[in-house]
Amino acid sequence: MRTRSAAAALAASLAGAGCVIVPVQMDDYDPGCRLVTHHIELQPVVLGRLNSCSGQGCEALVLASLGVTAVSAVVSGSIAIIGNVAYWAEHRAGCVAPPPPAPPPALVAPPAA
Prior knowledge:
- 49% of the residues lie in helices and 21% in strands.
- The chain is α+β, with helices and mostly antiparallel strands.
- It has one domain.
- The chain has a two-stranded antiparallel sheet with strand order 1-2.
- Mean pLDDT is 77; it is low at 6-11.
């Protein structure tokens, strides 16, 4: 049973090995504010796969790859949070709602004679 769980853990590690998480700036248009808005999303990028390795060298490589993935997620996540707060503040400051429509002209009754 132990070897089966160890093999499953190794297979899961190999599937995720070689990935980094990168922040990507996305643009949208807010018609209510007549403003292009920005936000940051995190996207995984596969750098490479571990196909043919064995022994302790492979285990070390898998652990190093998982460490790189974790560090890139923390750094990119921090960048995304700070960037999205800055973009939110920019949106709040730049959002000028269009003026309300003018009221219809008032009808004035002719003077009574």
